[in-house]
Amino acid sequence: MEEKKYLKWYNKVGYGSGDIAGNVVFAFLSSFIMIYLTNTVGLNAGVIGSLIAVSKVLDGISDVIFGSMIDKTHTKMGKARPWMLGAYFGCAITLIAAFSVPTTIGRTSQYIWFFITYLLLNAGFYTANNIAYSTLTALITKNGKERVQMGSIRFMFAFGTSFIIQTITVDLVQKLGGGAAGWRTIAIIYAIIGLISNTITVFSVKELPEEELRDGNTEKAEEKYSLIGSIKMLIHNKYYLVILVVDILRQTYSAIINMGIFYMTYVLGKAELLGTFSGAINLALIVGLAFLPSLVAKFKGYYKLNFSGYLVAAAGRGIVIVAGYMGNVPLMLAGTAIGAIGMAPWQGNLNALVAECSEHTFLQYGKRIDGTMFSCTSMGLKIGSGLGTAIVGWLLDFGGFNGKLAVQSQSCINMLHFMYLWLPMLINILVALLLTQLNVEKTNEKLRAQKAIKTK
After folding, report:
1. What are phi and psi of 429, to 5 degrees?
2. Please, are residues 204 and 65 in contact by the beta-carbon 8 Å criterion?
């Protein structure tokens, strides 16, 4: 029997466009915060990396807290949409502040300014907004195909936005006056764009009534369970833990790749190549996402498709390693694109997979904790991106990087080769191994059969 359809095409596009807002924060921050702080403000890369790592401890805690708060929210707008709308105003303010470190205060004060604004942005406002946005996948439709389509459209917007930001930002900063003033102005522009996009998304969809989400079961509509109880359910869901670890690794990978501006500047000799490589990644991902719904149908689910995709991703990065030592930029671009295509399935079906993971908890315990469950996407995003950025800072410092030098030492060049060429491939291999443990769909089918639950 065909699944009930809940969304029109404009609902799916409206939802997907919300990742414009997400990536004018995430792509801008992950790609340029380090080079802004080292080359413009003059801060030490190793210290920055350490501050980011410390912030992620608090950041990880806030993800589960906000997820639980969303689960317990009951308003006319629903559970997730109020959080998504309100939190983005804080995102806009703190994004601007992060790229507005005063040049007239002392060095210690500059580190404190960065740490506070970065922490508020990531652990607070961006967390609330991003978890709410991801949770909407489970709250506006119960149709598995629609969830995959939403994920595909969402990440097309995400990668398109990332590509544009990574391509135009460096030139725009110079055209806007360069230096600290240029970075501050571009941050203001991106914040305004994000506010507009986020608001459009919030009002383009509508959450389903809670009774419908519970398949008509109203008996447990008022159930109450603590944050600790929600965490216990998460810990006992092994698929949640696998998804969380995989997403942390994936975001660590992305952060390291996004920091490729150091490799482009000091190894390839052209900072503008960051946009070219970003194009190879994001255009390949968009192509892969366009075919994702049909691929999910062909592979009969997510399990085999995700695993096969990451084998391709690892092979693509292997090509990049060989081409990198040859100094063959076109071959590096080809390997980069192949690797990105392999990563497209996971990117597109992540939210649908988390919704399936949330369903696993519901089948086991009869309780819906969608917001808490979707905290793994935000937690993975922020811990992974922060860890990746921190690793870059530590490795740059260990390699002897000096932002005031036009030509770096050989030890720094060797470190850039390791950081940009080898680490991404090693991460992809590890992700492929973890994906062998993520067949949640088959497990849910067995649970439904045991409980005599018929899928619609």
Report:
1. -65, -45
2. no
Closest CA to 128 of 188, 208, 59, 76: 59
DSSP 128-192: HHHHHHHHHHHHS---HHHHHHHHHHHHHHHHHHHHHHHHHHHHHHHHTTSHHHHHHHHHHHHHH
Residue ranges and CATH numbers for the domains of the chain are 9-208+225-450 (1.20.1250.20)
Whether the CB-CB separation of 133 and 91 falls below 8 Å is answered with: no
C-alpha span between 274 and 411 (Å, rounded):
22
Which residues are within 8 A (CB) of 345 and not within 5 positions of it... i.e. 6 or more apart? 288, 292, 295, 296, 302, 305, 306, 309
Alpha helix (H) residue ranges in 219-272: 227-235, 238-258, 261-266
The CA R_g of the chain, rounded to the nearest whole Å, is 22
The span from the CA of 339 to the CA of 195, in Å, is 32
326-337 tens-digit pLDDT: 989 999 999 999
Q: At what angle do helices 81-98 and 107-119 cross, to 10 degrees?
A: 170
Contacts of 289 (CB under 8 A, 6+ apart): 152, 155, 156, 159, 344, 347, 348
Among 358, 364, 394, 362, residue whose Cα is nearest residue 377: 358
Q: pTM for the whole thing? A: 0.69
Of the candidates 289, 307, 293, 184, the one whose C-alpha atom is nearest the C-alpha of residue 242 is: 307
By CB atoms closer than 10 A (0-12, 13-18, 19+), residue 329 is middle
pLDDT band at 227 (very low <50, low <70, confident <90, very high): low
* Both structure tokens of 378: 């935000």
